[in-house]
Design brief:
- Belongs to the GLTP family.
- It is built from eleven helices and no strands.
- With 291 residues, it is mainly α.
- It has one domain: Orthogonal Bundle (Glycolipid transfer protein, GLTP).
- The termini are far apart.
Length: 291
Amino acid sequence: MGVAVRPTAPRRWFRLSIPLVIFALLLLYLSARSLGARSGCGLGAQACVPGGTAPFQVRQESGPLEAPERKEPPCLGPRGMLGRMMRPFHASLNPEGDVGLSPYLAGWRALVEFLTPLGSVFAFASREAFTTVTALEARVHGPDAEHYLSLVAMAAWERRAGLLERPGEAPRDPARSSGSRTLLLLHRALRWSQLCLHRVATGALGGPDAGAQCSDAYGAALGPHHPWLVRQAARLAFLAFPGRRRLLELACPGTTEAEARAALARAAGTLEDVYNRTQGLLAERSLLQLA
C-alpha cells in the first residue's frame, strides 16, 4: 500500500505569499497616487473641508508636557534628531504668514530621517515622502525657482500659468504634478506624522498602545483618502508597530521617559504649527481639492 503524501507545498506557498501581499498593498497605500485618491478634504481632528466650506485649522493639541527640571536633552539640540527636524520647520513659518518652501522641505528631509528607524510602517511612509520631497525640490531649485520661494508665491504663479490640476483629477504622470498638488500630499502626510508622534508622547499609562494610537491617526489623516482594501492593509501593518517605550528611546535616547515624552510633544507641536498655517493657506486658495 502506498503512503499518501501530504500536500505541504501549496500551504507553504500560501503562508509565504501573505507577507508579500501585505507588502504590495502597503506600497499602494503609501503611494503618492493613493494619497490623492479622493478630493475635497483637508485633514485634522475633524478633517473634511469640502468645497465652499470656510477654512479651518485643527485644534491646537500638542502643548508641552511636564518633565523634571534639567537642561534641554541632546535630542532637541542642534545635533539631536528632533532638533534637526524642528529648526527648519520652525524657520519655514516666516513673519509674513507664509510658508517658505526651502526650509519646509529641509524639515521634511529631517523628518524622513527620523521616521525611517521607527518601524516598517514609517519606513514605507518615509520612502514615499522622500520621493515626493525630491519632486518638489526639483521645482524649488529648477529654472522657475523664483516662483517657488514660498507656498503663496508658488500657488499664485501656478494658477496664472495654468499649471494647477482640476479638482479631483490626478495627472497621468505623477512626475508632472503641480508643485501645489505635491505640497498637498506632503501636507497630509505631515498631519499623520504629527498626530502619531503627539499621541505617542501624551498617551496615558495603561491606555492604548502606540500602534493603536498611530493607527487612529492614520484613520484621521490618510484613511479618508484611501480605498477600503488599502485601509485594511494599513490596519494589519499597525499590529506590528513598535511599543511606546521603544519609540521614545529612538526619539530621544539617553533620557528618562518623562523627558523623552516632553521632547517628542514639543516636536509634534512644531509640526502642528506648520500644518495649521499650511492648512489655512491652502484652504484660502481652494487648493485642498487638488488631490
